[in-house]
Amino acid sequence: MSPIHKKYIKSWCTVAFLLFAGAVFAQQKFDEAYIKVTNERAEKIVNDLGISDAGKQLRVRDIIAQQYRDLSVIHDARDEKLKAVKEGTGSKEEKEKAAKKIEKKSNKAIARLHKSYLKKLNSELTPNQVTGVKDGMTYGVLPKTYRAFQEMLPDLTQAQKDTILAYLTEAREHAMNAGSSKEKHGWFGEYKGKINNYLSAQGYNLKKAGEEWKKRREAQANNK
Known about the structure:
Layout: H1 3-27, H2 32-46, H3 54-87, H4 92-124, H5 127-137, H6 141-152, H7 158-175, H8 181-201, H9 206-222
Helix pairs in contact: 1-3, 1-4, 2-3, 2-5, 3-4, 6-7, 7-8
Signal peptide: 1-26
Protein name: DUF3826 domain-containing protein
Pfam family, one: DUF3826
């Protein structure tokens, strides 16, 4: 098969997935209750951004709410196809191969949506406000976890802090696109594992550090 032919097939597969997602969206008429939920979820995030202009507040709310809905379309399309593969005929190996292809196409669609979403946010918000949206969509796990590592290990170097923050930032980018709270926290869990491995390689005894940090917190609580 020629490289051009392969490229054509690859492009067609991506288009096919997006068409399928579009078909799901066409069938999935979001009811008023779901629209209300996504609007309220987005509005809660917007309220913490310090936007004084009412028109901008509404525009940003709609951008965030629509992102939740667009993500659900891709997730639903993916889940439908994965379910069909699981319940269909074929060997275990064939099903695993098909599932990987579905996940790959879904991830590409999500990556494109993510890029478009950030572009829309950046057209309305400052960099700090965009960060606020990201933290709002991921329950503030990044700043909480980053602060916890620094409290547990007060002698971290700046280079080590920067590495921890870089890992958590990457985790947040993935978690923003997850379809559930469990999946969002799962991304941070995966990257916290990477951070732990990194710190262990840097010579930290995390178990001991965790125990000592617990004692410090208990002592502070008793002194209040």
